[in-house]
Amino acid sequence: MYVGRYKKSSQGGNSPNDIIDSKLKPSGSMFFPEDIGVHQFMMIFHEYNFDQEKSVMKESIVLPIPSTLIDKYGMTYNSQDLKTLGAAGASFADDVLDSFKKAGTPEGEAKEADRKAGLDINALTAKLGTGAAAAARDFLPDEVENPLAIATGTVANPHTSLLFSSVALKVFDFNWKLYPRSVEESNKLKEIIRVIKQRSHPSFTGMGEGADSNFIMKYPHEVDLYYLGNGDSMHRFKRAAITGLEVNYTPEGGPAFFQNTGNPVFTELKMTFTETQIWTAEDFAEETIASAGNQESVG
Q1: pLDDT tens-digit profile of 123-175?
Q2: With bands split at pLDDT 50, 70 and 90, how would you rate the model's confidence at 298?
Q3: Are the C-beta atoms of residues 46 and 224 closer than 8 Å to each other?
Q4: 3-state secondary structure 148-159
Q5: 2 lies in a domain?
Q6: Containing domain of residue 122, as a range?
Q7: Residues 218, 179 within the same domain
Q8: What is the C-alpha separation between 212 and 203, in angstroms, rounded?
Q9: Are residues 253 and 139 in the same domain?
Q10: With a threshold of 0.70, does the pTM exceed it?
Q11: C-alpha count within 13 angstroms, C-beta hemisphere, residue 71
Q12: Cα 192 from Cα 271, distance rounded (Å)
């Protein structure tokens, strides 16, 4: 059983071959420019739903492949001083788990025999004395431990350990410089940017039928991202939210407009997407590779 938003069907990210054909309605797609070419970047917007498989698709927007393609992963670790008792506890727990795994096997019986043979009172007393002294120093206040360390030239081993904490959600920063070649293309680009703005912002909602208030806000839409025309040979995406949006109407250093319209001739679009699910080792159990004229999965 999986809890939270994770669903087994999302493992490995979204595949264009498996999802787009079944979900995308041709009438709901906008694209820029008119001759966009084979290699494309598709965004499919969905109304927010905790169960992503039940979310309602709205529009799809297709743009050229962004100028920079970076697939970045991040894992968070924290260093912590376990000190003597903590390190001993970890070692003891690891030993107990190992004994459980080997119980009833010849290897387990040999380990138990070694344990009994090692119960020498003199050796145990020596080990206890060393460990007890280190543990005691862990609890000494600094005003006592510091002079002791200076006097003896020794410190208790802090047993610093690297502890895994979490997997960071993947963040993508994409950039496009878009140059409409006509007023019609400029109007289409303007509509695309309007939809992106609308879907990336929350909306007011009432609590009952016919209600009209600003007390409650609905989450912004989420978006599925795809590279098209590359044979599914690059990385895949998990469902994401738009967490940054920037539109620059003077990317060439100064304003320029279509005659008699005021529509900008140049537009730079920057978008930041943050995925809503982490990636785990199971997501990489299989990898699609491309060969001459066909594809196959390896795993």
Answers
A1: 555 665 677 788 888 888 888 888 988 988 888 888 899 999 999 999 999 99
A2: very low
A3: yes
A4: HHHHHCCCCCCC
A5: no
A6: 80-166
A7: yes
A8: 12
A9: no
A10: yes
A11: 9
A12: 13
Render pLDDT for 74-98 as a digit per residue (tens, 0 to 9).
999 999 988 888 887 777 777 767 7
Among 138, 166, 194, the domain-final residue is 166
The answer on 253 and 176 residing in a single domain is yes
Residue 181 CB: number of other CB atoms within 10 A? 11
Residues 6+ away with beta carbon under 8 Å from 289? 233, 295, 296, 297, 298
The verdict on 21 and 65 lying in the same domain is: yes
